[in-house]
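Colleagues,

Please find the record for the four-part complex below.
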Amino acid sequence: MANSQFSMAVHILTVLACGKDENVKSEYVARSVNTNPVVIRRVLGQLGQAGIVTSQTGAFGGTRLARAPEDISLCEIYKAVSCGEIFGLPRSPNRDCPIGANIEAVLCNLQKDIERTVGDKLRQYTLATILENVNLAKA
Amino acid sequence: MANSQFSMAVHILTVLACGKDENVKSEYVARSVNTNPVVIRRVLGQLGQAGIVTSQTGAFGGTRLARAPEDISLCEIYKAVSCGEIFGLPRSPNRDCPIGANIEAVLCNLQKDIERTVGDKLRQYTLATILENVNLAKA
DNA sequence: CATATCTGTAACAAGTATAGTTACAATCGT
DNA sequence: ACGATTGTAACTATACTTGTTACAGATATG
């Protein structure tokens, strides 16, 4: 299954942003994402550890944004739920072969370069950008 | 399993590049990558369809680069074996919810933007770049 | 033309990741 | 004390990647 946790995280945070400073229940978010509340809470757990949201247990509990949408970059969200690399490195190249012995390091550097590039791009967007676009599309 | 087809493709092509204009057998490549020849031939099939390599069946057959390493960009290789997106889109957002109805298009645009960015970055490298780096590391 | 050598590809097994689901302990307002 | 909600473990279903075996088709060589 293709990993859609980043998409889900953005969707979830957009719902929370619309909830302003009210606690939003995972069950409510689940209806917009069209999935099970536990799936929402799992992602919310990662976003909480990253300091992007804060949750309250108990009656009238729920989750809200820890900061204003303008201060939450998509890069931060991506890293919070980050699940795997853009491309995987070679598994077990033959180190007796001159190429096999060196290709891993070369690809690893390339991988870091790509991920830095993606990070820079994602940093250009914030949750506020997403909110604007969603509202634009609505109009 | 994390997808390492791009890494494998680059590794394979590096081996082919070292074979100059000789046909290289999948069994030989498999020893450098440390896997089964069929796995190599599978990737080689995709690279062949993309016009990056040419193969010959039969005795003394094998595969060679279709072009000079300087003329093969990593972007081309990435697209040839392209296996999935940087991040998956939402599966089935609730279209009765204003957010659910619009988030998919917004994320899809974002996804295209990211993939364009990655493509631009990969276009800065060619197979020749990789060859240089592998040889540098060897020295 | 017969043979040995390769590729191309189908079919299947094994390992692993994601998502969905159920269940329940812990927490907290009333 | 009670009801509402999160946090989290455990399990299932699905699907993707890799590795492996098997074999048909193509081709150079003697």
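Residues 98-123 of chain B form the longest helix (26 residues).

Comments are welcome before we finalize the supplementary table.
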